[in-house]
Amino acid sequence: MKLLHLYDDIMNLYGDYANVAALRRILENSGETVTVDKISLGGQAELTDYDFVYIGSGTEENQKLVMKDLARYRESLKAYIQDGKTALLTGNAFEMLGKSVTDSEGKVHEGLGLYDFTVTEQSKTRVTGDVIYESDFLDKPLVGFVNKCSEIQGIKDSLFTVKMGLGDFEGAKAEGIRDRNLFGTHLTGPALIKNPHLLAYIAQCVTGKQPETAYLEHERAGYEITLNELTKRTGES
Amino acid sequence: MRMIFTILVCKLLRIIGKAVGKGSSLPGQVALKLCPDILSRVKLPSYIIAVTGSNGKTSTVEMIAHILTSNGKKVAWNKEGSNQIEGVTTLVLNSATLGGKVKSDILLIESDERFAKYTFRYIKPTHYVITNLYRDQLTRNGHPEWVYNALKDSIHEGTQLILNADDPLVSRFGADRKDVVWFGADKLSSDTETLESVYNDGAYCPVCKAPMTYTTHHYNHIGHYRCTECGYRRQDTEYTITAVDLDKGVMEIDGKYRISLALKSLYNIYNILSAYTVARIAGISGEKIAADMNNYVLQNGRVITFTLGNRRGTLLTSKHENSISYDQSLRVACAYKEGCDVMIIVDAVSRKYFTSDVSWLWDIDFEMLRSPNVRQIVLAGKYVNDLAVRFSYTDIPNDKIKLFEDIDEAADYLNSDRKEYIYVITCFSDKGKFLGKVKVD
Ligand SMILES: [Zn+2]
Known about the structure:
The complex is a heterodimer.
Chain A: E1 2-6, H1 18-29, E2 35-39, E3 52-55, H2 60-70, H3 74-82, E4 86-90, E5 100-102, E6 108-110, E7 118-121, E8 127-134, E9 142-148, E10 150-153, E11 160-164, E12 174-175, E13 177-179, E14 182-185, H4 191-194, H5 196-207, H6 217-236
Parallel strand pairs in A: 1-2, 1-3, 3-4, 4-14, 5-7
Antiparallel strand pairs in A: 5-6, 7-10, 8-9, 8-11, 11-12, 13-14
Helix pairs in contact in A: 1-5
Chain B: H1 2-19, H2 25-34, H3 38-41, E1 47-52, H4 57-70, E2 75-77, H5 85-94, E3 106-110, H6 116-122, E4 127-130, H7 138-141, H8 144-152, E5 160-164, H9 168-171, E6 181-185, E7 212-219, E8 222-227, E9 239-245, E10 250-253, E11 257-260, H10 266-281, H11 286-293, E12 303-308, E13 311-317, H12 323-334, E14 340-345, E15 374-380, H13 384-392, E16 401-404, H14 407-414, E17 421-426, H15 428-435, E18 439-440
Parallel strand pairs in B: 1-3, 1-4, 2-3, 4-5, 5-6, 6-9, 13-17, 14-15, 14-17, 15-16
Antiparallel strand pairs in B: 7-8, 9-10, 10-11, 12-13, 12-18
Helix pairs in contact in B: 1-2, 2-5, 4-10, 4-11, 10-11
The complex binds zinc ion (ZN).
């Protein structure tokens, strides 16, 4: 299995790299031989060579920089997704796939245009908070944290529904984007570590086989504790 | 009349607050309600020093206050560390006469980074120290560039900036200004040629975003950097750490002042250097400052030595959600040649705010605990599973690690006849839970 971590040195704000490490481990524990390539700004990646592509979150400035660079891959990324291959984009990484990102000064930055949504940033308040999401492909909810300054309008096929906390925009009940095996979510940081069931699901998308999950003991215990802590909060509010 | 009344109320509330053990921000909050422009009505001293940055501001301010007062200056400063506008208002009004005149030679303010722009709208510092900008409490601060932008709005014309030249993001504040005072460290014996950190916030130039190169790293992305494109580079320093020996616990400033260190960490030497820099600017001689800082033990409770049964140990307060703070504490433990056990507690991520976010654990360089100086590792607290997972992604052997969800049980486990020194690394939010089990010196 070949994994590609794109922009690992510049889109890695909240320990996002751990998602790739987690996927590597579950695949190896499931008997696969795994290599991970890290390719950043100006590098050249052949997406068709890979079984999994990951991009993490970055500062607003860095996201714009990366978005320009990523435009080179527009066609190959489109084909990659249409082939049903697996990609995960967390934090503001998946915002790059829409029509545009308008920054806090009103400047419009062109996105890859693979989807019709638009993104608007502001610089007044940081929009942050713990979240609980649900999905139609996992029987347990997801836990995590969102850390952004943007609103996203116009996503047709959402990834999650919001049980607690922030969605695509203020008051939104939907979060993220799903297209075949492309997963885009504003969950920041090591979402696959925090949600071992999501990790297992994505591993299965990559290999087409049921992965080995027995070793994820502490991951599951940690998940239950976090879910419990967050659920207590929904009771309070 | 309104001013006198407001000052009076603030003073009274502070007296009552102190008696019942309340923090120092409420009186200022009430005062700002009663008289929103109170800070522009009072007469401030002509010398106003402000200190901000992700790490070290409380310690630096304490050191500056110590040096200035022991050299005969009358200093008003926010000892309690309430560093938003309310706390600063309490400080100012509490130090003022009823006529509104602050009765000190120098006003010394520790300020929160994100809220500095509100505080300094009314109080314009004459000298403004910015220590560093790191990944710190990102669940509220967003990221360092976000904080940079917020902090930029707090800097006014006519304020002299005193900046850490070794921090590429902080240095950007001084890019177009004339009278900046730079402090920093020469290449030190403890430096590394390559980056030793889980992530690299110095990979790209903060000005033009081209790749940067380093000739030396003091720690993490703090060091001597240069942009490969636009010429942005580490500035030459006026006040400088010229040598350090962390084993012996000695630092040297400006090639002639030797200071013995009560806490042998790079953090500590930077805090001392920034305090030294401010004191020099305030006219105090290098000899006197060095004498005041020699073996100086911080009074702010960040470093606490204790006894647990027959064992001795030190608690190093490290900020949760701040990986560099953790890295520094881990480094102190790893340098302990006689052998130590290390305990890490993550029970409540934050003291004031609720969050279950532990993504910051992945930015901490726990790998260094593989050091042979570290014999056993005890992980404890509600988030012990998250710690265990994080450690499973290091090469530290499993049998070196013990897990306890309960902090009491972890402390009982450490209360053994082992001979190793104990380092406890945790945050303000969790340290009380451990200190209740030990005898504090
Ligand atoms: Zn540059």
